[in-house]
Amino acid sequence: MAKRADMSHTEIEQGTALLLDFEKLVKVAQCGQPLVPVAVQDADTNELLIVAYANELAMNHTLEHGVATFWSTSRNELWVKGATSGDTLDIVEVRVNCDQNSLLYRVHPRGEGACHAKDESGRARSSCYYRTITDGALTFVP
């Protein structure tokens, strides 16, 4: 059985082997920032686009500038979605959950898609949730 650590980013992002990163929240905790999870949803289609994390700086930037902004736990810096790719997510509404420990950004995507992973034609995928688990392996959602 393949292990996640032995796979390239391309194999993880484009492959069909199920290699979930069960260490993700450990890595998030180790980044040294107080964070909340942020679910990002297309305001027109209700499709879930991505899940990311925000600290107070990222949330305030989102509210002030009207674009989805997060804290990059891998780079440990402010991440304005689309700043380099052009795939900006314009904020329609920011919701807070009942316990005030997570956010929902409802957005209008601007650009090709919300995901940094590309499809077979080289376009950004509209959502980061483009595969489904079928019989223990991943299959692409049509």
Describe what this molecule looks like in 3D:
- This protein has a single domain (4-140), classed as Phosphoribosyl-AMP cyclohydrolase (Ubiquitin-like (UB roll)).
- By secondary structure, the chain is of the alpha+beta class.
- The strands form three sheets. A four-stranded mixed beta sheet has the order 2-1-6-5, with helices on one face. It has a two-stranded antiparallel sheet with strand order 3-4.
- It is built from three helices and eight strands.
- Helices cover 16% and strands 33% of the residues.
- Strand 5 and strand 6 (103-110) form a beta hairpin.
- The longest helix has 10 residues, at 56-65.
- How many extended strands? 8
Name the helix and strand elements from N-terminus to C-terminus, one letter apiece.
Answer: HHEEHEEEEEE
Q: What structural category characterises the helix and strand content?
A: alpha+beta
Net shape? globular
| Amount of helix | 10-25%
The first-to-last residue Cα distance is 27 Å
Beta-strand content estimate: 25-35%
| Name of the CATH homologous superfamily | Phosphoribosyl-AMP cyclohydrolase
- Give the radius of gyration: 16 Å
CATH uppermost class: Alpha Beta
Q: Kindly identify the CATH topology.
A: Ubiquitin-like (UB roll)
Number of H- or I-type helical stretches: 3
The oligomeric state is single chain
Main sheet summary: 4 strands, mixed
**Low-pLDDT regions:** none
| Major β-sheet strand ordering | 2-1-6-5
Overall pLDDT score: 93
Number of domains: 1
Task: Label the CATH architecture.
Answer: Roll
